[in-house]
Amino acid sequence: MSLDKNKREIESALSVLVGENFRYISRAGNMITLGFGEDIMHIRYNGEAAVLARFAVHIQASWRITINESISLGSYDFYIPKEGVSYEEFQKDENFGFGISLFDEKSKNLNEYLLSVPVRVDDIVANNFGDLHILLENDTSVEVFINCSEPGESWRFFETGTDERHFVVFDEDEN
Predict the structure, then answer these.
(1) Is residue 52 part of a domain?
(2) Tell me, what's the pLDDT at 2?
(3) Which domain holds residue 147?
(4) 99, 116, 161, 167: which one has the fewest Cβ atoms less than 10 Å from its Cβ?
């Protein structure tokens, strides 16, 4: 997406999420992945079958998830060791803190919450910078903040398992 894409285009592209359930939170390294919508069977690049949500948002910019006006999970949580893990042990980890970060501990709790309390998307709000605010039921929200002055991918939205082009904010190579 070029830098002249605006609020209306982002909100239009993500409008299909309105009414869909926020299903799960996951990670790929230090990128958060969010799943929305019903389960679909997906064959991964390595041939493994996986059950994923129909829609995905992958975020590489700063973000936070709030519940009841309190930050439940934030992008910096990738870089903090979970309780019981020393900072030295965390720094030596060769797996990007996977499994031993505060993110892993808190995302597990949030995923349990999402399983027990269905949380649907109420609205999508964006701005011309590419910031994204996903307003959800039960006083829950996902906020994404573009934190770089140079063009490049900050987040993307796509329908899992399709060949449809991904909606990328902001990709300097896209026309």
Answers:
(1) yes
(2) 46
(3) 7-68+120-169
(4) 116
Residue 1: predicted pLDDT: 44
pTM above 0.85, yes or no: yes
Q: Are 140 and 113 in contact (CB under 8 A)?
A: no
Low-confidence residues of the chain, pLDDT below 70? 1-5, 171-175
Domain for residue 100, yes or no? no
Task: State percent of the chain over pLDDT 70.
Answer: 94
The one-letter amino acid code at 21 reads N
Domain count, the chain: 1
Domain assignment present for residue 93? The answer is no
